[in-house]
């Protein structure tokens, strides 16, 4: 039921999707710069936990309802767009004030202390409020679920594989950012990074809000 002939095709497709740059990638990098390894990892885990929500929604057919109900889908899009603009605005404000996620402590540049709840909330909501993920799971997962398979169990299994692959990739990103910490800790670089990530997030949010 689980390890059928379609599994390898699914793994290849989901891996290519995972490594494609997007909002999740940007958020993991941003939060790793802000709060270090712990912030980046918690953000990654929270993002991937959202995949199970989409899997359950897809299996239950709620995604179909959202796609067929213009006002419900528009409301979801608006919520996701506003959240991205809010995250981007925070980065732009940090760049404007010249206070990135770093601070001077005992003569050394260190990450700021960020609560686990903040990391988890930002990661989880950025994924769950993304309507494109809803549409993708609704269109993609059924291609790998046979009529004889229990839809919910198989959807959760496929989401679990996506969870593992995405966390591995995002952990690699976290480690890469850590290696570049000394460079990113320079004030001008930090402000430029905040400006870039903030602008891209706001752009994604505005585009999502006006996307038909």
Structure description:
- By secondary structure, the protein is mainly α.
- The protein has one domain (24-210).
- 77% of the residues lie in helices and 4% in strands.
- The chain contains 10 helices and 2 strands; from the N terminus they run H-H-H-H-H-E-E-H-H-H-H-H.
- The protein has helices at residues 7-19, 23-35, 37-59, 62-68, 70-97, 116-128, 131-140, 151-179, 181-184, 187-210; strands at residues 102-105, 108-111.
- Strands 1-2 form a two-stranded antiparallel sheet.
- Strand 1 and strand 2 form a beta hairpin.
- The model is unreliable at 102-109 (pLDDT under 50).
Quick synopsis:
This protein is mainly α. It has helices spanning 7-19, 23-35, 37-59, 62-68, 70-97, 116-128, 131-140, 151-179, 181-184, 187-210, and strands at 102-105, 108-111.
Index terms:
single chain; about 210 residues; mainly alpha; two-stranded antiparallel ribbon; 10 helices; about 75% helix
Helix and strand layout, with pairings?
Blueprint: H1 7-19, H2 23-35, H3 37-59, H4 62-68, H5 70-97, E1 102-105, E2 108-111, H6 116-128, H7 131-140, H8 151-179, H9 181-184, H10 187-210
Antiparallel strand pairs: 1-2
Helix pairs in contact: 1-8, 2-3, 2-6, 2-8, 2-10, 3-6, 3-7, 3-8, 4-5, 5-6, 5-10
Note the main sheet. Answer: 2 strands, antiparallel
The proportion of residues in beta strands is under 5%
Number of domains: 1
Structural class category: mainly alpha
Give the distance, in angstroms, between the N- and C-terminal Cα atoms: 37 Å
**For the largest beta sheet, what order do the strands appear in spatially?**
1-2
Q: Could you tell me the radius of gyration in angstroms?
A: 18 Å
What sequence of helices (H) and strands (E) makes up the elements? HHHHHEEHHHHH
Helix content: over 70%
Q: Number of helical segments?
A: 10
Number of strands: 2
Mean of residue pLDDT values: 78
Shape: globular
